[in-house]
Amino acid sequence: MKDLIQCTVTCDDFQRWLECGKMPMTIFKGEDAVTMLLKIQKSPVNYLYQTAVEADSSISWKNGLTFCGVHDIRSKTLYLTEGLADVLTDRPVPLVAKSIPSVVDEICARINQRVEQIIANDRDNLSVREVSGLGAARDLEDYLEDGARQEALDRFFGGSEPDGQFHSGYSLNELPEAAFMAWLQDPEGFIRTEADQHIKVNQEKFLLQFLKKDALLSEYQAIVQDPDSPLHRVKAISEAIKTSGARTVTVTVQKAGEELSFRTGTTPLRGRYNSYSTSHIAAADRQEFERLFGRYASYTAEDITRITYGKRTLYEAPPVQAEDMAEGMAMGGMG
Fold first, then answer.
1. Ordered DSSP codes for 96-154
2. DSSP H or E run through 130
3. Which of 128, 186, 317, 322 has most Cβ atoms within 10 angstroms of its Cβ?
4. Span 231-281, pLDDT tens digits
5. pTM of the predicted model, to two decimals?
6. Is the backbone peptide bond immediately before 44 cis, with ω within 30 degrees of 0?
7. What is the tens place of the pLDDT at every residue in 274-284?
8. What DSSP element (H or E) covers 230?
9. CA-based angle 274:280:286, to the nearest 5?
């Protein structure tokens, strides 16, 4: 069964047809017939089907029936596929209004909420204490080796802290008919049963999630709590460039006892790596850079003392970094 959207009927004539109509109902938009609806009873609901109509509002033996909704006879609740819901709302006088998100979204949200309440963000509420499955163990090994570090970097540069919260992850790609009918007849019982089953079969998967979150938080804190890490300067430079919108800037570096200002494109400065290519430096300035620092030299965030855009200063090295550079320049001069 395709996903369904709960809708509220806004037209009395349509409500009467749902409750006691015997004949097919043709839906018009203006003077044009757009579809024809039929009901087939399957207690305690009516299934709705639609078929295409010809220009003269008739049907042909070439037309097929397509499932498009469910009407719960007892509760008078209507569930429609998104396509029919759009047809019935996109009219001068809508026949229905969408009242909640899709049934799949509603079911998944409630099951995830229940699972997360039961687990309560505490791995002691799991029945397993270690990851033993070969696939899960390899997944954890790979994540500890490199994945946690890379995700920590993504979050650091993206400004998104790890939330540290357990997430259930229950999902449905489509809504099976049996599941929908079970939910329709006993929503609370269905949610409870599905949540308990989800917990039962995913113990090791849930533990793996806790272990990965531990590793991610450790890597993230190692970056954030190390003010001397060059990553902080790389991030400051990247954010300054992105905020400015500049495509070309003037960068001043102090390197190997020399100071140089040069014009460069901002593409390498927007990244997260602490080494900047010289290929974006203006040709004349690049020649001077290579003369001072070597043909294959690059520069890093620690080398940069200032970045300007016109008369605006976009970035200046932190005081400690600037002092260390000045000291290095002085010692270089003494030699």
1. EEEEEEEHHHHHHHHHHHHHHHHHTT-GGGSS--S--SHHHHHHHHHIIIIIHHHHHHH
2. none
3. 317
4. 999 999 999 999 999 999 999 999 999 999 999 999 999 999 999 999 999
5. 0.81
6. yes
7. 999 999 999 99
8. helix 230-244
9. 100
